User: Fold this.
Amino acid sequence: MTLRFSTLAFLLATATGLTAAPAFAQDAPAPPVAEQPTNEADDGGLTGSVSDENEWQNIGIAITTFATDRDVPTQTNAGSTAQLGQAISQVIASDLKNNGLFKPTGPDGLPQPTLPEVQTPSYATWSGRGADMLVQGYVKASADGQLTVGCYLYDISLTRQLVEAGWQFAATDWRRAAHKCSDLVYSRLSGESPFFDSKIAYIAETGPKGRRMKRLAIMDSDGANHRYLTSGQSMALTPRYSPDYSKILYLSYLNGQPSIYSYDLATDRQTLIARTGNPTLAPRWSPDGKWVLYSMAKGGTTDIYRISSAGGGTPQQLTSGPGINIGGSYSPDGRQIVFESDRSGSQQVYVMNADGSNQKRISFFGGRAATPEWSPRGDQIAFTHIAGDLRVAVMTPSGGGMRHLTNSWQDEAPTWSPNGRIVQFFRTAKGSGQASIWQVDLTGRNERRLPTPVGASDPAWGPVRP
Assistant:
């Protein structure tokens, strides 16, 4: 059994056979909402850092339908402002439920507050319903089609507001307001950084098992707003978002020629970064966006190179055989690179300095290890552990504390959520070879499949959107 995209054999066979982000602003009309989250004094309310979900799963969060000052048509696909208030609440409830940490209820079956009640909740009413926390908000439409959404989080037992925020956005981006509210609630209660308002790039797969069409596609973190970026005329592989979210780096085999492209999401234009003339794989950005790592097979060995992200110039070779050196994922500070190599006789994980110096093996726990990816926090490395089945696992940057997050037949190619708490990967079904995207949190107990319209592999989770 071999990894689908991490081995040189696959690439050799392939080579031979083959809208502007919304502006968030303070809501001018009453009720007032802060542009940035505002917290009460830190002597009350829940906060902390999530290392295990047990203490958080008992928190009941009631989420009511967002109120409106007047029910008028909007330019969204959700309907009028009243219907939009319901839709936003449903997205928030889905976000928090799928995260696995909380027990959200609503908006269906809960009292619907009026606009004045959004800022003056009846704590006794909600306490009687067994709620620990309450999420309320509002949506307003302006004459020019812009929408303003406010979000409030209340602690029922303390009878106090914990945090509030407001955003202004275009009608086409209404789901972002819901994700921003989910991020606000999640961050305030868990102490973790947000991740809901982010996007995922992946490879959409269609066609028979032996002749799959592979297209570059993107979607929101919950699978909504799906869009294909390439036509499928040439195979697309291994996408990665740029650190500033403006571009996607990916590998293309146009006319059998391995090429690294940068896809500009604002202009839908592609820039050629490198066309090596040799089997190439796994392009990756540096944290500052100035460099692109990639692996290239030449003269019987495969090594890791880096080149300017602007394209052109002479690539710098970072490894020098023997065998196959693949991948390359920078540490968050850009000082180190984790990669896989078979120089010891089997696929294992290595770490080196950003200039290629001080290369050392860190995986010594049996079996093979491949597709390493450094956590945005810098404290862990996710990878594919190959020992019979293929499973997603994590370890520390020194190679300690290895543990499995999944236990299926073929799970591989992990990518991290922006806050480093969730690992996404793709799972291949036995027999059909059908691939799908899954994610699991660091406890390994909250696993779910993401909806995609077709088969899906090679996910790449982008940073939180600005």
